[in-house]
Amino acid sequence: MQVELDRRRPGQSRITTPRKETDTCKILSGTHEGMTTGTPIHVFVPNTDQRGGDYSEMAKAYRPSHADATYDFKYGVRAVQGGGRSSARETIGRVAAGALAKKILKLKSGVEILAFVSKVYQVVLPEDAVDYETVTMEQIESNIVRCPDPEYAEKMIAAIDKVRVRGDSIGGVVTCIARNVPRGIGSPVFDKLEAELAKAMLSLPASKGFEIGSGFAGTDLTGSEHNDEFYMDEAGNVRTQTNRSGGVQGGISNGEIIYFKVAFKPTATIGKKQNTVSREHQDVELLARGRHDPCVVPRAVPMVESMAALVLMDQLMAHIAQCEMFPLNLALQEPIGSASSASELAPNLS
Amino acid sequence: MQVELDRRRPGQSRITTPRKETDTCKILSGTHEGMTTGTPIHVFVPNTDQRGGDYSEMAKAYRPSHADATYDFKYGVRAVQGGGRSSARETIGRVAAGALAKKILKLKSGVEILAFVSKVYQVVLPEDAVDYETVTMEQIESNIVRCPDPEYAEKMIAAIDKVRVRGDSIGGVVTCIARNVPRGIGSPVFDKLEAELAKAMLSLPASKGFEIGSGFAGTDLTGSEHNDEFYMDEAGNVRTQTNRSGGVQGGISNGEIIYFKVAFKPTATIGKKQNTVSREHQDVELLARGRHDPCVVPRAVPMVESMAALVLMDQLMAHIAQCEMFPLNLALQEPIGSASSASELAPNLS
Amino acid sequence: MQVELDRRRPGQSRITTPRKETDTCKILSGTHEGMTTGTPIHVFVPNTDQRGGDYSEMAKAYRPSHADATYDFKYGVRAVQGGGRSSARETIGRVAAGALAKKILKLKSGVEILAFVSKVYQVVLPEDAVDYETVTMEQIESNIVRCPDPEYAEKMIAAIDKVRVRGDSIGGVVTCIARNVPRGIGSPVFDKLEAELAKAMLSLPASKGFEIGSGFAGTDLTGSEHNDEFYMDEAGNVRTQTNRSGGVQGGISNGEIIYFKVAFKPTATIGKKQNTVSREHQDVELLARGRHDPCVVPRAVPMVESMAALVLMDQLMAHIAQCEMFPLNLALQEPIGSASSASELAPNLS
Amino acid sequence: MQVELDRRRPGQSRITTPRKETDTCKILSGTHEGMTTGTPIHVFVPNTDQRGGDYSEMAKAYRPSHADATYDFKYGVRAVQGGGRSSARETIGRVAAGALAKKILKLKSGVEILAFVSKVYQVVLPEDAVDYETVTMEQIESNIVRCPDPEYAEKMIAAIDKVRVRGDSIGGVVTCIARNVPRGIGSPVFDKLEAELAKAMLSLPASKGFEIGSGFAGTDLTGSEHNDEFYMDEAGNVRTQTNRSGGVQGGISNGEIIYFKVAFKPTATIGKKQNTVSREHQDVELLARGRHDPCVVPRAVPMVESMAALVLMDQLMAHIAQCEMFPLNLALQEPIGSASSASELAPNLS
Predict the structure, then answer these.
(1) Which region holds residue D184: left if phi is over 0, alpha if psi is between -120 and 50, else beta?
(2) Inter-chain contact B279–C349, Cβ cutoff 8 Å?
(3) How far is A337 from chain D (nearest CA, A)?
(4) Keyword Transferase, does the record have it (chains A, B, C, D) (predicted)?
(5) Residue A153: which residues within 8 A CB-CB, separation 6 or more?
(6) Which is nearest to B36 in space by CA: C53, A17, C85?
(7) Taking the CB of residue D127, how many other CB atoms lie within 10 A of it?
(8) Which helix (H) or strand (E) covers residue D201, if one does?
(9) Over 50: is that where the pLDDT of B349 sits?
(10) pLDDT of A55 over the 70 cut
(11) Spatial contact of A120 and A160, defined as CB atoms under 8 Å apart
(12) Spatial CA neighbour of A83 closest among A299, A294, A268, A207
């Protein structure tokens, strides 16, 4: 869990916010002697580098394109220090929970979830620069921008450095892949797997777009060009020759690699003077102080992975409940007066 | 409701599937003498032009990029006639419910939801061709492809005709706008307004992408270019000079026009021979018969509007429950022994 | 399903409402060639013996202790014919769904759910008259009041006949048992198994009370008298000597028989003159016509069983999703390139 | 909030567990300068008097009728100290949240929720000893057992003292009333108000029964005796002459006082030797140490009130969202270009 939190924390490199948070997590409940107990797990991550003073201007005026205005519209209050719930600190919980989901998915089904930066501002990683079958966490983590291609990583870092020094910000795109997802996961109508992923990604701060498989670019093809033809592989499995579907067909996984992209806008809080209005409805100028990310995408990588893991974990659980009751038949069908039922339902007992 | 269903039904024009369904809806329960009764409304829409024979080849082999394979993976059964739940007929329910939601939203809050086709295959409607403030339902419905610009509508229809005659298919993009949405609607963390919209749109058949406001293109701008500056308008309201946010900031509406785009891939079922596999795991060739849409986007327009209306209706109800209890104070706080409470809680009584 | 609906239908005997409904069910969707398809199952049960004229008086005045007044308070409308959603006809859907749940529970886990009438008005079936281990459906269905003890059945029928002829009504108690429920089913805090059962039972029309295990009578014992001591049975299982817990401890099943009781008040609609008020707020007298049950409990028996089955089915699915992922390990963890994964995830394929 | 927690805390009197916990609550998030911010409110209540040693015997053997066995069956782990989630400490969260709900209900709708002890072991408070219209919190809190009748309070305390000194335990019944609940609150089918209350009460530790209004005793009456006749009161409201319905008809409140009873079994953990089995499946004897309540009902009073408040709060919010959109019409229907809309949607702004 701490490893994942460290990938998310502020101050991890020169291209993230200079705010220094260790984001050290402490588990207050839910585990006992190294095992989960079935109780909710309480993870506590205190702030260590908070400077309230930075927020004095922002307390008076709404930051353009930031959530503080709409919060005030909705709730009629402002808790401006650190941005309240619209602060990216809110994503600590997502990453902590995602770390557990990733571990269970890996252990139970061999699922591997990896995200990386595929665009920063106008620097676009070419589609063929990364092989979704083989790309590794090591390659992604080999540089501070989290792009598995070293050459493009350099260009992206340079782009961030350029806006960073003048107090401006930029956005980008994170690509996420999930390998070894069993086929059959997902739902056919409202809760399609791609719908759940889309919701999860658009719930991340600063995200403005989601596309799975061929996405928006798929509209440039005809059906005969776009369709993924099926074939039988050597091991006797139904596979597809191409994967424009992105691993899902009609809301349900087909066993191919799931991949999707998420667009993140440039950070709203910038170190440049902007026109805005105050809570008292006066036109004012705002120069935000605080210490903010020049580009959110390197830190968004673990957030995207975590949300993907949480969605897949939920969907896997739902799938097991709905469609995999059969193999449990033996364990469950026997009345209590049978030794096998006792040991199988509570295997740790014996 | 019938008006909306007619916008969705097959056979409405030469560029949709030639299957002739009247999609006549019949309300079986939930209304009495022209009023809803609080009971679930049962809308019954029977099939009238079903030809089971068309599906004989498809019963044996999986259609590439179609949901029938993943359905079989998940449920171990196939109900191939008409595509089962992965048929676009499933969207009738969405459009019927959406018709009600649109009516309530319009009546209670003046909300107007309009969608139109902004891309068909490689024909792209320019951003400045449509004014989101003024575009009307009449303009959208003035042609069979549902693009408010007559010139581009012609080009789009021509593109569809071209693939239609050779049995191929194409996709496109639907843009949706919602005007007069009160500010403060939405949720700050997991259930952000844009997240709910993204889920709703990705739950539509054939959709592969969603972007709100500046979307993926927003990553080409810096924060100082992208931010929407606030100002006070003449009526004393907090407004934004630009609207790259697409009407939402941090999950909550800001009172500006909400707009988003949805990408739809080319229809999977085509009248061209494709390689695939059979349920018995044999490599086979498939030539689908059936009668399918050469391009789904004209019929997707009412689906997108309907899903947007359902999301906004849900969020408006949640907002009222959470944040608008105050004005109800008088109606609810009085004990039963007061005439005003009786009449206000059940206004139809007197 | 029809068998269960016949146990619920009006007009089944002289002690139920004389309204003659065959309650013939027709499945409109969700099955294909005798198998469920994973699609929602649409069961259609039309009314056949509706006499609107019976409701003319009731349309003007509120029936004492009936839902029609509160409906009007809440929704401001009245759909009085047949009682709208507060009619017992609403329970058809519960019984139809419960029939499926009972079948799956029996098939997958050997769970048997049986309910019977244990009190009618002041006729109380003694606790020791029925052996929860051995009582059968045949015994319960051997008489029209659904009490497995023939002697008490006669007394109960006599009690109903007595009020029936003078247009009055009486209530009673239904006892329900569930045998062979695997241990470990349920949830530890808010969604305790007994809590879910209580909600399900109090959602039935006319129910006013629920108790599980020793219930209210358990408050007459001390802890040392009440506690169920554990012992090891011959088959090596942890069992309890007594079962005052009613098969649940702290929200989770312990493998013993689950049993609970539900109190049903006398039917509100009676054929006797009562004082009430009209919608126009005038004090009036009401003599209800309609044809109503003199005692609802014989028909409540399949309703109670059905709701119990739905709760247990839900909880079993939740349990499998949360705690039984382990045995699925092999089926799910293998990547798509393995034959075993393909066949196990979609067993019907080969 | 602290006042309510003090009513629940251990060690408050000689008839509760002698464990000394101050249960001092500390709010870690969700408020700012005395106002809630819309963010989840984190209430932290640390343990101060925990003696792990007390639990050494219990760690080896299952306590009869306690949740520790079923927890182990379900999760395969034991976290025995303090009982884990099956400890009554879990109810701190319910009481803290309930304190807020009670405050909002009182403020917005004048709702008053009061619970009191109406039975301890075989000491039964007569029905006519308490007037539901006038009973006060002061009367209830005037003695340590929380029975508003001083004479019966003495008898109840004596009964508890008697079992306390010999290490045994007893249970009882808590009655709860809610005054001034607006009519129209609740739902007509599955989520009836009484169903939600039943679930909430059966989710409390040690509860075994729930009855609303006439409850089980109502089955001793005929319909003509049981029905609550309507009349018009002097203020022009529809009222009922009697209240055997307990304030609900068909799942929806009718404006009369809501009242219900909850049965609590004797505390499972007792200071007497009992037969049981160990985790290793050996028959053993257990003499629990720990410090446990001789009778849980005095401390259950605030728990029952809190759960009732949470249910009513939820249902009131749902009612507002579903049925009270009308009065919000003016506030919400105006487009953003109107001053009234701005100020009404965010009243704290101006």
Answers:
(1) left
(2) yes
(3) 14
(4) no
(5) A142, A143, A145, A146, A147
(6) C85
(7) 9
(8) helix D193-202
(9) no
(10) no
(11) yes
(12) A268
What amino acid occupies position C245?
Answer: S
How many Å apart are CA D8 and CA D298, to the nearest integer? 8
Domains identified in chain C and CATH numbers: 2-345 (3.60.150.10)
Cβ within 8 Å, pair B62-A230: yes
For the record, the structure tokens of B77 come out as 């059964």
Using CB atoms within 10 A of its CB, is residue D53 exposed (0-12), middle (13-18) or buried (19+)? exposed
Q: What CA–CA distance (Å, rounded) separates B192 from B201? A: 14
Instruction: Report the DSSP beta bridge partners of residue A207.
Output: A264
**What amino acid occupies position C136?**
T
Rounded CA gap, A253 and C189, in Å?
34
Q: Could you tell me where the DSSP H helices lie in D149-192?
A: 150-165
For chain C, helix (H) and strand (E) counts, in that order, are 11, 15
Closest by Cα among A217, A114, A244 to A174: A114
Distance CA C117, CA C132 (A): 13
Mean pLDDT of chain A: 87
What residues in D contact B182, CB-CB < 8 Å?
331-332, 336, 341, 345
Residue D335 pLDDT grade (very low, low, confident, very high; cuts 50, 70, 90): very low
pLDDT above 60: residue C101? yes
Across the interface, whether the CB atoms of A76 and D36 are under 8 A apart is answered no
**Which residue type, as a one-letter code, is found at position B127?**
E
Q: Cα B344 to the chain's mean position, in Å? A: 36
For tokens 């390659």, name the residue: A139
**Residue B344 to residue B327: CA distance in whole angstroms:** 12
Residues 6+ apart with CB under 8 A from D68: C250, D58, D62, D78, D80, D83, D84, D86
The two tokens of residue D215 are 């409850």
For the segment C294-350, what is each residue's pLDDT rounded down to a tens digit?
999 999 999 999 999 999 999 999 998 988 775 444 333 333 333 333 233 333 322
Residues in contact with A103: Cβ distance below 8 Å, sequence separation at least 6, in sequence order:
none
- Going by C-alpha positions, the residue among C112, C268, C250 that lies closest to residue C177 is C112
Q: Are C212 and A311 in contact, with CB atoms under 8 Å apart? A: no
B191/B255 Cα distance (integer angstroms):
18
Element (H, E) at B112: strand B112-120
Our CA-based measurement puts residue D80 at a distance from the nearest CA of chain A, in whole angstroms, of 10
b or e along A76-87 (b: 16 or more beta carbons within 10 Å of the residue's beta carbon)? bbbbbbbbbbbb
Please name which of D250, A183, C6, C64 lies closest in space to residue B71, comparing C-alpha atoms.
A183
